[in-house]
Amino acid sequence: MTKLALRADLDALRAQLASSFDPHKRRVFVCNGTGCKACGGDEILGGIDKALKRAKLHDQVEVVMTGGCGLCENGALVAVHPPGTLYCRVSPDDIPDIVEKTLARGEVIERLLYETPGSVAETAGPRISAEQEIPFYQHQMRIVLGMNDRIDPSKIEDYIREGGYAGLAKALFEMSPDQIIDEVQRAGLRGRGGGGFPTGQKWKFCRAADGDIKYVICNADEGDPGAFMDRSLLEGNPHSVLEGMAIGARAIGSSQGYIYIRAEYPLANERLRIAIDQMREWGLLGENILGSDFSFDIVIKEGAGAFVCGEETALIASIEGRRGMPMARPPFPAVKGLFGKPTNINNVETWANVPHIITGGADEYAARGTELSKGTKIFSLVGQVNNTGLVEVPMGMTLRQLVYEVGGGIKGGRALKAVQSGGPSGGCIPAHMMHLPIDYESLAQAGSIMGSGGLVVMDETTCMVDLARYFVTFTQNESCGKCVPCRLGTQQMRMILDDICEGRGTEESIAQLEALGEAVGKGSLCGLGQTAPNPVLTTIRYFRDEYLAHVREKHCPAGVCESLFVATCSNRCPSEVDIPAYLSLVAEGRSEEALRSHMERNPFPSVCARVCPHPCEERCRRETLDRPVAIRAVKRFMVDDTTKVSVPVMVRPREEQRRTAVVGAGPAGLTVAYFLRRLGHEVTVYEAMPEPGGMLRYGIPSYRLPREELERDIERITSMGVKIVCDAAIGKTLSIAKLRKEHDAIFVGSGAWSDVTMGVPGEEGRGVASGIEFLKEVELGPVGRISGDAVVVGGGNTAIDAARTALRLGAKSVTVVYRRTREEMPVQPEEIVEALEEDVKFEFLVAPVEVIRNGSESPVAIKLQRMRLGDFDDSGRRRPMPIEGEFIEIPAAHIIRAIGQKPIVPTGGPPVSKRGTVNVDQLSLATELDGVFAGGDAVLGPATAVEAIAHGRRAAEAIERYLHPGKPARFPWNAPRTLDTAFDPTADPSTATRLQTPKLSPVERRTGFDEVELTLCADEACLEAGRCLRCDFGKTVVLREEE
Amino acid sequence: MKKPGSRVSSEKAGRKLKADAPKARGWGGPGGRLDPEVERWFATEGAAFPSSRSSIIPMLQAAQVALGYLPLDAMRAIARHLVVPPALVEGVASFYAQFRFNKPGRHRVTVCTGTACYVRGSGKLLDDIQADLKIASGETTADGAVSLESVSCFGACALAPVVVLDDKVLRQQTSVSMKKVIQDIPSGPSKGRSRDVRSSPAARGARK
Lengths: 1043, 208
Fold this sequence. Notes:
The structure holds two protein chains of two kinds. Chain A is α/β, with parallel strands linked by helices. Chain A has six domains: 7-138, 3-Layer(aba) Sandwich (Glutaredoxin), CATH 3.40.30; 156-366, Rossmann fold; 376-563, Ubiquitin-like (UB roll) (Roll), CATH 3.10.20.600; 569-645 and 976-1025, Fumarate Reductase Iron-sulfur Protein, Chain B, domain 2 (Orthogonal Bundle), CATH 1.10.1060; 654-742 and 908-974, FAD/NAD(P)-binding domain; 754-902, FAD/NAD(P)-binding domain. Chain A has a five-stranded mixed β-sheet. In chain A, strands 18-17-16-19-30 form a five-stranded parallel β-sheet, sandwiched between helices. Chain B is 35% helix and 9% strand. Chain B has eight helices and four strands. In chain B, β3 and β4 (168-170) form a beta hairpin. Chain B is elongated.
């Protein structure tokens, strides 16, 4: 090859490369970025090449190695053009198929196509063939990354063919240095490394500085954990960075460049080295480049693993061979930098933007983005998001679009909690602020920073306190030690965070953190120290409740801070039942002890074994191996296997016993009664309905919860001496004032029995009932059979319960109508499955607009507005939007509305909020009335039984403290656990697969109210319980008792 | 080798170091001689570096690649070449997380504890690997087979949590899958020389 001596040579070469390039030739692009290499990318590359030769296809198909096409999690990626098919998760085993089917015959291999993520296993989305149609790419604007998926980063010819080095040629021959700087300034390019300083201005300073020798440096010390934009650029298109540097050097008047790159990026290092060698060979580095008067060379300097070296003065120190400690500025590097000479430092992505500005012009560049933040920004979108990888979007896109549209939403359909931007210098932006546009100013206002572009998406399984500790630990260790506030301040902050995470924190600790954070920020010399408190301060600002849960309740809601719980399942259980304990006891055939262990913290084992939505199973670590332990199924066996268990009442001196009253014999009220009775107090429960049980009896049909099972649990409570008075509604003979006078403390657990109306014409009158009224009447009975078609409006538990009940009562057909889709339904997915099996019909994306009566007394149909899913709201669900003019009518003789329930609070009861819920102190559940506590649905709105039970225990503890102020409370259920079941931590985990509980056949179910779910046999229950990984092993104490 | 005193630090005006006789400055090991292996490295590679202070880090890196770690004598040899006190070389080396001063195991397990890996459970993963290998991060097993390290970000965040075995990147690891990986590590040396993905002190201290 000959050197490109003149600009004309470069143009001629490009013309020749372009003319010999046949765009219609079939090419197979094999990604070989670090991500795809880890998934066998290089083996696939070699394998396809070999297979093509064997099939004698190598003349017709060209194999191209690329580096970094973005959709890294779906690696290894292989794209075939034309027609533009993208294959995901390719393994070397797929090579024969790709060659024989796709490359030889043009067939598409279905199984390798991109799969749209779905939150529910059964509803995984369709597969998409064309690369450009994948939502991940659709919403991006790939300018800087544009060439990554079609050029071979190790071939300078590919880069030149695609227009590479045209910008350099233009800068050398058509523009003066001042014009270049002017162009960059007008484009509005700002530093992509984090600070956002205007690049053109930086260049101007350096150009104006005195000095015969000047340096340009590319900062490729990408130290932010969670960010890999720079790596991908260097791996996928190193020449764009090098061209940018050359243009910058020309503008500034420098002839020597340095690239300071992390040693942790071996592949980027290698590709960069190849690229620089090629530039030299072709004469794009060296003396008189392309025949101009510009001479330039670039040297690679490998970093040695120090985060602080991302700071420019520290980086300079490191290149000079010193400890990488920052220096005070001024003098700025633009005046006195590397080896004392004027130096301009920009980050990799900033340099890679430069050729686009020069070739396309400032106006075109500035047309993208917002007023103050121009162009596009590359982000590494990682964490708990479906499409992790590298994305490039125009500035100003909202975080919500980025997470949901580009990122495809949260993994496993869980809820978004926060997005962390800017690495250890940045902050956490909570879910309710996802409407923020991504630009330098908006993120700074939210307390975070743009940073270099790491965006870590977090769901409810991330503990924000632990995350703050993680970042402070990082900065503490990376602090160079020069400034005291940073060196010691970060250490102190970390120790306080350790305290909080390990259960020793107090509210004072949070105040200390805030004060220290402010001091460290103000007192540090360089960016590392100044921004080190950001993760702590933003998490306190937006997630104070989570900090409070750690310090007040010694509870880690996310289930991360190990010292605060025995196992993640128990921690997730609202009533904190010791799940590994009862599982292991059942596995040893000790059901009675298992039940007793359950009763320690939850007096409704039979109820929960049937109706609990088992959030514990969502956090079972067995899921990382295969599927979660079927915890509720084991519990079901446990309660069915045990005849009778009694719980002792504490023996207490007479003077310590108090008189207490409970309003409402639902799960919350009866649980308070149970725990207060255990503490030796006298308890009377007043219930308005004829039988105790509350919603458990009147809101849950008996095919889900047989009444004798409910009575079994209640009987256990009354046998301890709890008095239940039924048909005793507040307002008739009783009043809250009277109860308060006659008792030392009372608890109000009056539930959420009031229903929400649809507010549509025709709703008033016969044939339209509320779901909860309907279920109540069925329970009170006797209810005759119903005839005709029934329609149930709503998507919650009550809706499905009402639908299945209506079916059992003989309705001709039952249709559930819901305004969103199946995925968004709040009801348990398995109940939808059961309802479908029983022939309940579903109509999604419709909202009621009228009950049609046609003059008759009863309804004849319901008119529904067709809906579509619109934009994402802050809860991460798409908003249902009406489709103009599209309506449907469904015949309906019975309409049951179940679109929401509201609390009812007895007259004279505690004050309520606007939502109608009782105002309580979150920790003690004390209301604004002295000696009156409240919990369950009355406080939460419609919630689950297990949440009401959790409230019950918490209220009982608070009442005990209220009754005996100043006395340290000792609760027997908080005592250290003594578990003697056998466990061998060195043994391999059980290989058994998750068992399903048997169910009644759909035909049998429809004819009556027999229980649908059946129980496991003893052997099965043991096997299932034995699948537990025993995360609790070795743990005995959880700090809960106060000093 | 240049004569002592001939070194001119162009980059650090005003902080030139006056060099004394080599021995007095402690450039030799015990008895004034350096370990033969270090001398071999120096003769084949080290001596070729320009004798300027900005060679310190590249020389340390080269020595570590060749020797597997940085014995004291390697730093003495570098100091001798650059005509600076050995303390200065060690001072630079100890600042950077990349350099190790103890002989590593034949295989290296590196757990990424970057943010993306961390929120997908690498903290717990590292705990479990430590328990499996019965060593703490930064240590080597008693038989010298495996060194366990952590790195603050490997940059393969999309594949989190990531573990690197020698130079093979393993994606989306769990405690259970790592148990198997560790069991399958051969007791012999790894094939080829793996590059350093050396831990940062941050990651090492991230979890107790």
